[in-house]
């Protein structure tokens, strides 16, 4: 700093400004005295200034002073239990009988802690009606702690007996709650952890027949419900309603210390201590590590994770050199302080809290064959740090215990510890002595072990030892894993010292279902033929003992554990030699089945807009399993989840489900992760999913762009349908590529190109669909061969997806379709007739074809529609050249007497760019039925063979489809009373045939 900085403080900086409540207005029933009372509280120091003001209806303000009309009470402050002060100020006056004006009174308060005065108003006061009830401010704690019951009180004065109370809350997630008071008879039946309102107090008011009441609301707060809470109390009586709001200042959740603390042996020569604090709110927390000797370490800033209920977790770790703990008085202290706590909390640790106490094995007794030296050896392992104390004790048969020390009789070895592969230590403690020839007494030796991690010493005993017979073989404890995992091979070892060559080994098991098993060692020649998944015992090692002609051996038992056989297993190893038998038992601590979780997280859409994530973990044992869902981008927050465990035999399955706000998936980096940890697992395992993953189920399906017939100077619409996507933040843009060019030009909404805004619509399965559109008027000169591209982007797509129209073929209709002459067959009454008209040089989507009948007498044209009399065929269009098609329209009918009144049939073709074109049959000749010639029969059969599919057009539209793969997926449009379709589809529209009355009259004689 270049110069000194400073801060200056005065009473104006104090954080205790006064709070003011509503003015209580009371009129004495026995007189005309009116008393106004205003409560002021939570201020400090006692430097309050209070002023009363009378405000007229014309806005004039007059300071009220003590005089013949007004009496102002002296303010006397007192402590309010929070070290701050409170007081009541009052104004009294006599009601004027000749005054009917409405007036307003104001209590104005000044204090050094206030930047400007505060005030409370009575509102316009009708002096002749001062008995309206008064609702006071809601009282209760303004700091809430999650899990600790809160009770709020709302009091009202001068109430009628019919007063009703309604507590109104809007929770942090927007959920509204309205809580009415419970009837008195149900006060004892309050449901736990719910909002409960009761009439807490009722007493007579100073005004006759009126009451003072107090209503209370009780509940247990939570972060999710009450983080952004709004709360009020509404009172109603005689059609009048008054409401008071409550302002919550602080909402806390106290940190929970997760027992036990964590201890880890680090390399080289360090121990790490760690604590976990969970479920606190807000996030900020102070954690400090210190020690009572030497320099305290610098505390690392902890990292936080956020839980589903908005509370936070943190883990704090600190390393110390192991040599510090060799001083048994060395202490490590960790303390934490959070806003929710009244005072700091802490934990203290010393070497006595370390979780690595020593384990001790049976004492091995060996006598040297060449001398009378006896050596006792005791193995001690799995301890840390290296603060072991070993003592040998000789115990006589009379119970006398003598500490063994190094002297002429006993030699005690120095214990030298070494790492045992688990970061802990092990050592061998030994005692040697000369066997006394004149002693025949039995004695017992005890190895006593002390360590700071032990609450009391542990020991191993030789048992009563016959000194004259020390060559008896010794069986050591069975070694092997004490935690088994189903499906993973287990090998147990049983070692024995000072054995004869005839020693035999028998492994004895009693399986969980009670099945006994005795397993003898396989002969050496069969070691390589071990049957899989069976109990297999082999002589694993044989070597000479220190005693002549004796051996040290090791036998092993191997098998693959299963849950049914080994859940309640008992196991031992029995060794026999020279008629002596010794047996050691093995205690299984844990049998585990590792959980299986091969499937990915599955997602499902809910009607609420949330996404349900589900995950199944199968076939694990035992039942307890930890599952945590988290979601986030850079830092993860814990998500609320539910688990359902089912049992299958001895194993269990769990179905876990969590719900995620669907809007979160709009961020492509948002990841949902499920993690699980089971006793059988060394570390946590997890699966995760985001919109970028291949297993994400709602990637947009983007259809090819159907290309309509492109006609020069005619408005055209290109569409690209996008469906089955979630969330709805899909984008699409259009690009244009010129013919014989590789450069792409973006198309923006403007005069030439219209690009409607995408409007995704929700579907029944809760996914979205939309159509990207481009409207423009093509030109033969500029758009022939141009390629239009729709580029679609969505968070679930790794890269943008493009759909292309291909090079556009723009057609300019400057010619007229050609209609060939109609060949009219011979028409005979009663025979079926087909009239054909071939049309060429046209684009089907630009023409409309229909048939007319011309009457002989009137000359009027009658449109023919499909009916029982007349049938039109569907035109099959065939490509004529690159730009045009041809096809044949057919009219089929059975000739009758009515046909004789028709002069000719006409095929009319309407074209988009010209006047209608017609071809007629010319006057038709209808003859009576007679025997047909052979040629006529052949023509009739040919006509029957060519009979087309019927097309019903009564109040419906039917499509005529181009027989060409280049013209599919085309769009339809409507014009006038007919339906027109772009290239690829043609619709014929017909009118029903109307019969003249004259025709009907003509038919009557024939029918008669």
UniProtKB/TrEMBL annotation:
CDD domains registered for this protein in UniProt: IgC1
Ranges for domain Ig-like: 18-126, 147-247, 358-466, 487-587, 700-809, 817-918
PANTHER family cross-referenced by the UniProt entry: TAPASIN (PTHR23411)
Regions of compositional bias (Basic and acidic residues) in chain numbering: 935-947
Signal peptide: none
Listed SMART domains: IG (SM00409), IGc1 (SM00407)
Membrane topology: Single-pass membrane protein
Chief place of localization: membrane
Gene Ontology cellular-component terms listed: membrane
Renumbered residue ranges of the record's region Disordered: 935-958
Protein's UniProt name: Ig-like domain-containing protein
Pfam families tied to this protein: C1-set (PF07654), C2-set_2 (PF08205)
Domain of life according to the entry: Eukaryota
Sorted UniProt keywords: Disulfide bond, Immunoglobulin domain, Membrane
Compartment annotation: Membrane
